[in-house]
Amino acid sequence: MSQSLNKSDSLGLDSGGLAAAGPSAAISYPKAKEPMGLNKLFSLSYPVKSGIARVALLALAVGFEYLSRNCDKLKKEISTWEEGRVFALSVLSQGPSVVLRKENGAIRYIGGNLKDSEIVFYFKNIDSALMLFAGLIGAHTASAQHRTIVHGDIGIAMEVLRAMNIAQSYLYPGIVLKKTFKRAPKLSFSEQILKLKLMLALLPGIAAAAKK
Amino acid sequence: MKSDFYEFFCPVKVISGKQALSNLPHEMDQLNVKRALVVTDKGVAGAGLISYVQDAFQGSSCEIGHIFDETPPDSSNMVVNQVAELFRQKNCDCFVAVGGGSCIDTAKGANIVVTEQTDDLMKFRGAERLKKAMKPLLVVPTTAGTGSEVTLVAVISNVQAGVKMAFTSDRLYPNVAILDPKMTMTMPPKITAATGMDALTHAIEAYYCLQKNPISDSLAITAIKLAMGNLVKCVENGKDESARLAMANSSLIAGMAFSNSMVGVVHALAHATGGVCHVPHGVANAILLPFGMENNLAKRAAEIGELAPYLCEREIQGDDRAKAGAAIQAVRDLNKKLNQLSGLPNRLRDAGVTEDKLEAIAKVAVNDGALIYNPEEVTFEEALEILRRAF
After folding, report:
1. Whole-number Å distance between alpha carbons of B92 and B88
2. Distance from the Cα of residue B8 to its chain's centroid
């Protein structure tokens, strides 16, 4: 009786290994290993991770501001942007955000309110943001893996992304750029000097930006 | 690793085969809807294909509320708003798109307008902004190329702003795709060739672009096999029902693949070529595909080489580079054959592009979102170089 019921219930579908095996003892799993190296980052508490992401976003904002005034490549890239363009990076759903605006030909950090942003790059969660900030993946990999999404016009987003790549090339060491860029940028001697100057300006810049 | 993290999603029910269209009212019933707004175009209606759709409703409690047959080749926000208004006026409860990519995108766009109760699509541009459950959308493709019947994408022009608005959302997947060979039988040889090459381009780019994954890989290979075995047959004999159905499947399966793995430089350049010089999308893809594959050889020789057994007529010996080279040559040979059979252009100059437009195309192409997923970095100068070679 039970056998015939099983047959009629199955409708030709495989009922699945566990169900077919019937009631059994709970499976015992070995204890999960402690994360190693940079992976330890992901086992930190959310407030700590959020704090790290905020500092990283501010570093990017400060880098953008500085380079938009001093880096010829970035100046050229944003020269075609309309004045007042507002773009932002943010971590979903309630993580940190930075909003930047083109003003008088340069980029200015204007705080964390996304309200007026025409383009927002969202990280789907804090770990995805940390993967990018820690130099484990590049921006294109984050997009390809759907760890980020863009709200707004894709054409404008591509322009912002190119500018962001230029800024990142001055913020990360060469070894990270080699791993995370499709084609690692090669900085000339004068560009290396600019990178050094940016590094010196970064800490006070972040401290000032954090007060906004 | 090339697929160490991926997402895959395709919730579309597929019904494929002879008289599959007859299932349309039943599928509406299953979705608990009764009154369809049919979105189509003059070409489809003129070919008598809408009468097949009307016939399918005989003996059914479901009905057609209205037929909108004025979809233009490039859908706009104005058309989408008009369709949405008709949907409300005629008390419809679902969309049935019958046509190519433009009809399907128009239905998707109108669905956003109806669901979000807006007339301003600009607010929803970009990725994953649509969260409300949408009205059911059933799709009956009449071309075999776009794959829009199984994709999460819609592209609509904004006439006032002069921009193309792109939307991607899991909500934009149709509920049902119906592939009936009689719906593609009247396609002329040149359009059959161009749309078929669009499908093949989707599959090939899906196989080597950055978002590739094990599921999209298997779909891409199946789509390539179906296209290579049937595209020429369809162009040679449009009445070959079995080949037509196989190509419809190739297009759908390639759509499933690229909707999850995205496309690369070929599409970025083809979108721009279409935008600047009004070259049909399939024609531009066909011309640019071998050049786009070559552009990615340094990083993707192994993947492109893996396609050689499905693209080439004979077995290819040698290393990845040799196999990839043979795969690219096979695409060129196919283009040449289609040119002989149908007049499908093989060079940009033969498709109405003038040399003075190449810079403008390259400029638009570097702002196309598809470039993110291309394995190789493509600068303005490199995009221009590819275009010059394809000219």
Report:
1. 6
2. 18
Nearest to A154 among B7, B129, B369 (CB): B369
Q: Is the CB of residue A146 less than 8 Å away from at least one CB of chain B?
A: yes
Please check whether residue A150 touches B, CB under 8 A: yes
Collapse the DSSP code of B156 into the 3-class scheme (helix H, G, I; strand E, B; otherwise coil) and give the result: strand
pTM higher than 0.90, yes or no? yes
pLDDT, one tens digit per residue, over B68-127 is 999 998 889 999 999 999 999 999 999 999 999 999 999 999 999 999 999 889 889 999
Q: Which residues pair with B95 in a beta bridge?
A: B37, B137
Q: What is the ipTM of this complex?
A: 0.89
> Of all residues in chain A, what percent carry a pLDDT higher than 70?
88
Confidence of residue A15 (pLDDT cuts 50, 70, 90): low
* CATH code at B189-390: 1.20.1090.10
Cα B227 off chain centre by: 14
CATH architecture of B13-183: 3-Layer(aba) Sandwich (3.40)
Q: Which residue of A has its CA nearest to B272?
A: A155
A144–B165 CB contact, under 8 Å:
no
Q: Judge contact between B332 and B243, C-beta under 8 A.
A: no
Residue A17 phi/psi, 5° resolution?
-60, -50
Domain boundaries, chain B: 13-183, 189-390
